[in-house]
Design a protein that fits this description.
Elements lengths: L1 E8 L3 H12 L5 E5 L15 E2 L6 H15 L11 E2 L3 E5 L4 H11 L6 E3 L1 H7 L9 E5 L3 E3 L1 H14 L3 E4 L3 E7 L2 E7 L4 E9 L5 H6 L8 E10 L11 E5 L3 E6 L2 E5 L4 E2 L9 H14 L8 E11 L6 E4 L6 E5 L9 H12 L7 H6 L2 H7 L1
Parallel strand pairs: 1-2, 1-12, 2-9, 5-14, 12-20
Antiparallel strand pairs: 3-8, 4-8, 5-7, 6-7, 10-11, 11-12, 13-16, 13-17, 13-18, 14-15, 15-16, 19-20
Helix pairs in contact: 1-5, 1-8, 2-8
């Protein structure tokens, strides 16, 4: 039987950033398994590629801001191209959310890089926007992320640091001895033993955890995205616009506009099919929020997984019941933006970093067992 020190299940951003940081911190005999033929296939490859740091949770905002600094200035040799296109981002709140948005920005402090602009100035800069704009904050250094470059940087850097990455290797279940996870059994019956198994399998993390009797609950959900056909009126340099209240966001993409109505529904991760009714919802919001762009036709419509927790914070740390099992899951759509700090925190705990920080306690998976009791 093959034996490794750390076995990471999942080759999306959660698994890759954990592998990269853990190896650079001195972790040895690290093996990462990805069920698909390509890395970053599911949540990591089907998202909107937006850098947005400010949100309702101060902890996630703090992690986002810190990670964004590294995204802007990654380690030497990490990527051959910039990871961020700072086309700018506007957070736009209607009357019902204006004070809430202002509170988020205030809680983030001066490091947020935000500039409040008047509704009149916002409409001057974005004349095609038709939604209500009671409070508007501009984030000039935010915008679009190069997901392919980010995934490749973590993968290539992990290999260079000694991590073995195997693709097209689906895991069937976790292996256990008593109350300890001892590795995994693959779909082909092969078993791999590990001192520590990292559950970074995105939407499948909860299901695989259950095979060992873990009581940690993470919830796979579905969200849809749409790209319109190219339109001559669209400037590819336009900023990202994210409306709060009746949630909606958009940005230029491939000559058209990428649109999302921020839908969310619980799904079976192995049966995440698109719901064509959501296309109608996006189209209706597009008509209301972007009337200045006229009639646009659909070029592509798809859905992807976002794995949530009950408090919308990550599951990051050791399983409370099962020795040898470590969670990096429930990233809830924040994985790309928070990628560098997720891996940093995971590696610190995998290396036995003490004392456990306030951030680490807040993300500890033990809190998610209470929700399932």
């Amino acid at each position: 039987m093959e034996e490794v020190g750390t076995l990471i299940v999942g080759g999306g951003i959660a698994g890759l950033t954990t592998a990269w940081h853990h190896a650079r911190a001195g972790g040895e005999k690290i093996l990462l398994l990805e069920s698909e033929r390509l890395l970053g296939t599911h949540s990591s490859g089907l998202n909107a590629a937006i850098l947005r740091t400010i949100g309702p949770d101060p902890l996630t905002t703090s992690l986002s801001l810190r990670s964004a600094r590294t995204l802007r200035r990654p380690p030497a040799g990490f990527a051959q191209v910039p990871l961020i296109d700072p086309c700018g981002l506007f957070l736009v709140a209607d009357t019902s959310r204006g004070a809430t948005l202002a509170g988020w920005v205030e809680a983030a402090g001066p490091d947020s890089g935000s500039i409040e602009v008047s509704p009149e100035e916002f409409h001057r800069q974005v004349p095609f926007y038709g939604g209500e704009a009671a409070r508007v904050f501009s984030f000039p250094q935010e915008g679009r992320l190069d997901i392919a470059a980010l995934v490749a940087g973590f993968a290539e850097g992990s290999r260079a640091a000694g991590v073995t990455i195997r693709r097209g290797v689906p895991v069937k279940r976790l292996s256990t001895t008593g109350d300890r996870v001892t590795g995994v059994e693959l779909e082909d019956g092969t078993c791999i033993a590990a001192a520590t198994t990292v559950m970074a399998a995105g939407g499948w993390a909860g299901r695989l955890g259950e095979t060992a009797g873990s009581r940690v609950v993470v919830i796979p959900t579905r969200r849809h995205l749409l790209i319109t056909k190219p339109h001559e009126s669209i400037d590819p340099g336009w900023p990202v616009i994210w409306a709060l209240g009746d949630e909606f966001y958009c940005r230029p993409e491939s000559g058209g506009m990428l649109l999302c109505a921020c839908d969310q529904s619980v799904v079976d991760p192995s049966d995440c099919r698109r719901d064509d009714h959501v296309c109608e919802i996006i189209a209706e919001k597009m008509t209301r929020f972007l009337p200045g762009l006229g009639d646009m036709q659909v070029a592509r419509f798809w859905c992807g997984l976002r794995t949530m927790t009950r408090d919308d914070r990550f599951a990051l740390g050791p399983d409370p019941d099962l020795a040898g099992l470590f969670w990096v899951a429930g990233l809830g759509g924040h994985g790309m933006v928070c990628s560098f700090d997720i891996g940093r925190l995971a590696a610190r705990r995998l290396q036995g970093g003490e004392p456990v920080s306030e951030e680490e306690r807040a993300l500890d998976p033990a809190r998610l067992v209470e929700a399932s009791a």
